Amino acid sequence: MARNQGKVGQAKSDVIADLPMACCDETAAVEFWERHRWGDTPCCVHCGSADVYKMRDFKTGGRNKRYLWRCRDCKKQYTVRVGMVLEDSRIPLKHWCYALWRACTSKKGVAALEIKRQTGLSYKSSLFLMHRIRFAMSPTDNGPKLTGTVEADETYVGGKPRKRRPHRPDGKYTWQHKTKQPVFAAVQRRGEVRARVIPAVTKVNVGPMLKKLVDESSRLLTDEGPQYIVPGKNYADHQSVKHSAGEYVRRGTDIHTNTIESYFAIFKRGLFGIWHNVSTEHLHRYVSASEFRYNTRKLDDGDRVVAALRGAEGKRLMYREPIKKGA
What are the residues whose beta carbons fall under 8 Å from the beta carbon of 124, sequence distance 6 or more? Predict the structure, then answer.
């Protein structure tokens, strides 16, 4: 069931000019979501028919108070919320517009507490809203595999302070990461990034993740971690830098992992400076939002907002499993 996804390539000034009004007026917000979801051809979210109409208020003749549409074919009523991450949400769409705008235009993301202060919503509602916007930013699949020169690395998030233990023959200390949550990422130079939360940094976890995200014809660059030795043999070329010896760029070559380290630096600045505390349960949503912002870094703010808005369609985020009949 194909649907019109709106005007592609709309100028930045058009989208950015519409957002301030959409953030303060509910009718403008509803029309903003309708315009960018359906474009000039509204259609029924239930049957896909284009034979639909706006329901009107009997007394004023204006739009229905709930902004309902009705399909002449299947006779069902619906709103622009149906079939999107904001379905069944009672939060006004003007607040959704504002939170989406801030999440897309802030390089390191935005905190739910900030949305609370600036919209007047409760913290619980703000967190509800932000989790669903991050879910809209998350990829529906792994996307095309990375090719060319690909850098891979991991970082650790949260947990108690790491302990130092003598773990090397020369008596030097190494960091132990047992209480922290690892995040694996691979980035194609001058291309996109793929970031995923993994249970542990071992070849058992890293190998399948590399195979899923990176094409085997690629040139793989990593650090000297043992988890890359065996999986690296499956790629056209595998080179590593030895960080423990102070080597970060191999002299006279382009062998380094500075690109992926730069991505992790931006992600960590969001953790330290914006969110401050992220639970393991929801960490993957923050990682997905960071991946989205990196992969759309070459778009202007308006196009990035529209990309996130379109990513909200066909997704639902429900924390409770539906109750089975007879249970």
Answer: none
